[in-house]
Amino acid sequence: MNNRNPLLRETGRREFLRSVAGVAAATIAGPGAATGLVEIEEPFNGAILDHHHGKERDGALTIPVMVKAPDRERVLVNGAPALREGDRFVSSVVLRDRITEIVARAPASGSEDRVKVVWDLFSRPRYNFAVDDNSFFLRDIARKQYASLFDCFYLKLFRDWHKKYGTRFTLNIYFAADDGFKLSDFPDRYQSEWKDNAGWLKLAFHAYADKPDRPY
Length: 216
Fold this sequence. Notes:
216 residues, 2 domains
């Protein structure tokens, strides 16, 4: 597949999510879920929805629902009649809670389908900025015994970016460097400063060393 085409990438992503959601469908929907003559095609079971998938108004999200059913059937979606459009029935459901069950039912045959969806109410654009392979700035601070962590040019750079852009950083660190320095050699005198800046600057374990097969 040519993944350079954004439409193909999106289609592949959606099919993958459908497959994953299908495996967990019985767990999410619980007893009584059934797929017969009536089938909810959109949204799929377990879908996480936000303002991109519907219209937000008055503390609720209204989403479209698409149902597959035979022509002769009359379909209700959460108790409201769905409209025939081409070879599908369409309706809308208002989400007011974090998790909502959607039920499509054909009264004549008794066939029904159920899905549960999640409303990501606080969805917003966000990103994670992580930097791998860190150890030398810790060695620099330990050896030079700076008055502040941010007297180290490396950490000062991240603090300047945080002040300018509001970015939060995670530095993934090694336990040992190839020159013999180890994390256990780092002084504890900076503990309060680490804590004061923990809201935007975090340390995470990356690996023992860059080449852990070497003796350190």
